[in-house]
């Protein structure tokens, strides 16, 4: 037992260091210095431990600190958000388990990992469903679409009050990928997520499932020569120093789904429950707008640094949608056939 407790913190520190190393210069001792708490929270009645695996330089992650400050102010110091980004509490699968037990009260979980909690959450990972910023806004603001999604984790004892994002998914590669034929020569890293695995099998692409901390070495050594991710993340985490090309497939939005332990929430007084949800909704909406800006800024910076960007032809996009039909069918049964059809129809999908 002693060995387990010693190794776990070491593993978490290793993950954090790997995440940080490509982002910050060697002289940075505290990567979270700019987000330090500026108020004395020792007198808080309630503490909300909130986890995320990424760094708040990404707007969709920084929202945790914005929620912390806004909630402290609007609750008159009654609720303190103890925000722990950078995998301080472990990897996403570990934190999801802690969240269900109540050891952690909240989590900004990646959309790719969230499908492991409830099948309906996987709808945002399906190709060309919630794929643009405009569709994401429409999805979030339509009660008929958002309601079933936000309530889908109830069986796991969790709530989904809102979402933020980290851009549109595409392919960062070490060789130019202008067509589907070009993509056949790439071994893509994909996330540890069931929808993504089914999708890449349907597309007939080579892929390797890797934890995020393993990606830098895998790219450098040629174990993979492609990365399924967003331009925001690829540029900020310096993946473009190796993968000099990016194909804007734009098949899905990368999202952070805000999960809350329902038992903890229900113990809050009614007035604080209202403030809690209100703050999360307000700050998440602001952050979605900031993410749109960050998307354009990071693409511009990558282009200035020499990264080449490509768009698939309409014919290739149509082929990807056609080849994904078995995935729509399989996940439609799990998500709900009628619900998926309603979402696709309202968002203008075929």
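-> sequence recovered:
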């Amino acid at each position: 037992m002693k060995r387990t407790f010693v190794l776990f913190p070491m593993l978490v520190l290793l993950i954090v260091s790997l995440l940080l190393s490509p982002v910050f210069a060697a002289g940075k001792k505290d990567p979270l210095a700019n987000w330090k708490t500026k108020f004395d929270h020792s007198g808080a009645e309630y503490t909300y431990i909130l986890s995320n695996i990424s760094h708040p330089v990404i707007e969709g992650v920084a929202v945790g600190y914005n929620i912390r400050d806004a909630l402290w102010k609007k609750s008159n110091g009654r609720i303190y958000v103890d925000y722990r980004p950078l995998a301080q509490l472990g990897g996403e699968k570990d934190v999801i388990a802690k969240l269900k037990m109540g050891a952690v009260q909240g989590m900004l979980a990646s959309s790719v990992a969230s499908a492991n909690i409830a099948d309906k959450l996987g709808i945002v990972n399906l190709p060309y469903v919630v794929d643009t910023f405009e569709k994401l806004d429409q999805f979030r603001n339509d009660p008929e679409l958002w309601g079933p999604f936000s309530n889908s984790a109830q069986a796991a004892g969790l709530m989904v009050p809102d979402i933020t994002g980290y851009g549109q998914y595409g392919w960062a590669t070490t060789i130019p990928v202008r067509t589907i034929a070009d993509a056949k020569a790439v071994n893509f890293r994909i996330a540890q997520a069931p929808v993504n695995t089914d999708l890449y099998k349907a597309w007939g692409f080579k892929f390797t499932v890797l934890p995020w901390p393993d990606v830098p070495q895998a790219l450098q050594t040629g174990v993979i020569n492609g990365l399924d991710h967003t331009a925001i993340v690829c540029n900020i985490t310096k993946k473009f120093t190796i993968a000099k090309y990016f194909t804007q497939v734009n098949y899905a939005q990368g999202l952070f789904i805000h999960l809350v332990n329902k038992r903890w929430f229900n113990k809050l007084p009614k007035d604080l429950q209202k403030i809690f949800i209100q703050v999360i909704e307000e700050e998440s909406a602001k952050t979605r707008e900031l993410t749109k800006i960050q998307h354009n800024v990071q693409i511009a910076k990558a282009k200035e640094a020499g990264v080449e960007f490509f768009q698939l032809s309409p014919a290739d996009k149509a082929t990807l949608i056609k080849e994904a039909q078995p995935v729509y069918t399989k996940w439609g049964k799990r998500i709900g056939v009628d619900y998926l059809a309603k979402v696709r129809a309202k968002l203008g999908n075929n």
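The longest strand covers residues 158-173.
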